[in-house]
Amino acid sequence: MALRAGLLGVGMMGRHHARVLREIDGVELVAIADPGGDPHGVGGELEILPDIDALIEVGLDTAVVAVPTRFHEEAALKLAAAGVHALVEKPIAHTLDAGRRMVEAFSQAGLVGAVGHIERFNPALQELRRRLEAGELGAVYQVVTRRQGPFPSRIADVGVAKDLASHDVDLTAWVVQSDYERVFAQTAFKSGREHEDMITITGRTESGVIVNNIVNWLSPMKERVTVVTGEKGAFVADTATGDLTFFANGTIPLEWESVSSFRGVSEGDVIRYAFTKREPLRVEHEAFRDAVLGDRSDVVTMEQGLRTLAVVEAALESSRLMETVKIG
């Protein structure tokens, strides 16, 4: 019997959730709610309900929360009280206290609470994680991410740190399987808004990996790149295209001295891997479904989502204080 799923919010992201909920096996989208109506016409045969209370009244097993961040806590707490498993879009909440209340509510109710950190489900990063786990890079030294592009007018309630940098914090900690230990960050406010539109985070994980996250809404070019450098070379994952490339440290000496001094580390083979590239949102929904059914799953838990928010908040604090902040 299919899980009865509801969707709160059918804006830019919610419309994609609606499509995927209708496509995956074992799930039936039975209700949609959005106080703003149905701007993208995704309701189909379903009535657009006015709020989370009306959504819950339909009778649900699971729900997706895809409304602005400041509304996450209220919706999630009502879903937990009603016994409904929830997938909440990232970031988990607008404040750490709100996130903690959400974690506690779902834990006490024995429900699956998940956060939509979708980059973990990107095929390039999933392949990268598998290869790191298999030891193909040896010891990991450094992770650098670049997430740059034009300003999205749809984002009004948070800055680039919570909206975009949270992706990179989560994926970095997941890729190296180690949480951030300390961060130093700098922000800029260039577009006349109350929230930052540029942030760089320099940090270190508990395992000793050096981290650098470069994020902004000020670039005319869109870039989504993760570079993991280690003992045997470097992996470059482009999450916009789903491509993964490996640059191996070489064992062949370069006899042409000027080229050798320019290129530094000796060159090895360059491999661009071929692998199945499934839509990340579909893989994320399947992981959430499997977690609800009690199967093994790589779902991003609310606890992990809260940890990511704590790192982002620490980075914002660091930028205000202009000093390094240790993650509590």
From TrEMBL:
EC number: 1.1.1.312
Gene that this sequence comes from: ligC
Domain of life: Bacteria
Residue runs in coiled coils: none
Keywords: NAD, Oxidoreductase
Molecular-function annotations in GO: 4-carboxy-2-hydroxymuconate semialdehyde hemiacetal dehydrogenase activity; nucleotide binding
Pfam name, any one: GFO_IDH_MocA_C3
Name used for this protein in its record: 4-carboxy-2-hydroxymuconate-6-semialdehyde dehydrogenase
Domain Gfo/Idh/MocA-like oxidoreductase N-terminal: 4-117
Naturally occurring in which organism (per UniProt): Microbacterium azadirachtae
Ranges for domain GFO/IDH/MocA-like oxidoreductase: 126-235
